[in-house]
Amino acid sequence: MIIFRLIGESFRFAADALRQNKLRTMLSLLGITIGIFAIIFVFSAADTFRSKLQESIDKLGSKTIFVQKWPWGGFGDYPWWKYVNRPEPSLRDYSALKERLEHAEGVSYEIYADSRTVKYRSNSVEGAGLKAASQDFNKTWTIDFQEGRYFTENEGKSGSPVIILGADIADGLFNGEPAVGKKIVVMGRRLTVVGVFRKEGEDMLGMSQDKNILIPLNFAKGLFDVESGRYDPTITVRGKEHIALEEIESEIQGAMRAIHKIRPGADDDFALNKSTIASDQLDVMFGIVDIAGWVIGGFSILVGGFGIANIMFVSVKERTNIIGIQKSLGAKNYFILLQFLFEAIALCLLGGLLGLLLVYICTLISAALGFEMVLFMKNIVLGIGVSFLIGTISGFWPAYSASRLDPVEAIRS
């Protein structure tokens, strides 16, 4: 109880000192406030972007692997010349993989053509993304319908003229009316709508199905060359839930090497891409952003820390005779030390809280402008922790020098 009483008295002394020197207090807070604001603003913006990007990446699925020509992660020293002569994934590769893979929940062959026009009577929607996929597309991707259904087995095998629309495409063509059963025109062909994807909304990577249309792969073969590199052919494999991702990847790699007749020791002529690659790239990219935040805010905090240390030395000088009186009345050295140390910590905490308040105001402004930036709890704790640490470091030496004053000399000063 005595310790708590001493701490309370130290806080009261510190609060009185801060109230009596309002201008000096505000000037001392400025450096800390700007520093904490810079660091936490950068971290909050980066964490918000990271969270939204990670949500997009999670749509790929934790057990999904994409067999493609190009590996993901084209940053830094990217040896593109190694990959340019690789073959595109072919229908032969797809058929062979589908027969050989034991750990696969589904295997699909997919292509994508952008900027297509979709027409229904006098209405038309431009800029639609056209996807063509084999029958297992609904097994390799998680899809939901707000209307209708997926392709039947017979429709997929026979290449029936059927189509599934994204929610935005359906709204643009039918203005809220039921879409299933209506006939639309795509690339000069009439197709029957059998389903509409559930509206997903925009994400950071643009992987929403809202502006896409999906047709059976066998029907697309009559429209264009589905094995052409122009349409980014991809073999998507989703592994079974109880099988480890590494085991699924190893099985695909072995099967593809056998299909392509690659000699032992030779490099693969295909890429196996997965969501963890994108996540690792995000960690590298945002790690650099975090370092930039520390550098930007660190200089302000450093200047603010020196400013507070200087102010505390001035405060000790002004109150030297009061320190002497306190000591002559029995105040211990640690009481004097705590009194000035708490004053420095209180200054830094107040500056840190003001910096956090500015960041919170920025989150409100960003939400009003259409981009929701989030002030995460870990960043609040970080801001308070950094403020406390700077206050302790800046205030310790002035507080220690005050606690070591001789009471007689202090009173005489």
UniProtKB/TrEMBL annotation:
InterPro entries linked to this entry: ABC3_permease_C, MacB_PCD, Macrolide_Exporter_MacB
Domain MacB-like periplasmic core: 25-253
Record flagged with keyword Cell membrane: yes
Principal location class: membrane
Claim: Transport is one of the keywords in the record: no
Transmembrane segments: 27-46, 291-314, 335-368, 380-400
Keywords, sorted A to Z: Cell membrane, Membrane, Transmembrane, Transmembrane helix
Highest taxon in the source lineage: Bacteria
Pfam family, one: MacB_PCD
Domain ABC3 transporter permease C-terminal: from-to ranges: 295-407
Membrane disposition: Multi-pass membrane protein
Gene Ontology molecular functions: transmembrane transporter activity
Location within or outside the cell: Cell membrane
GO cellular component, one term: plasma membrane
PANTHER family found in the cross-reference section: ABC TRANSPORTER PERMEASE (PTHR30572:SF15), MEMBRANE COMPONENT OF TRANSPORTER-RELATED (PTHR30572)
UniProt name for this protein: ABC3 transporter permease protein domain-containing protein
Lineage summary: Bacteria, Pseudomonadati, Bacteroidota, Sphingobacteriia, Sphingobacteriales
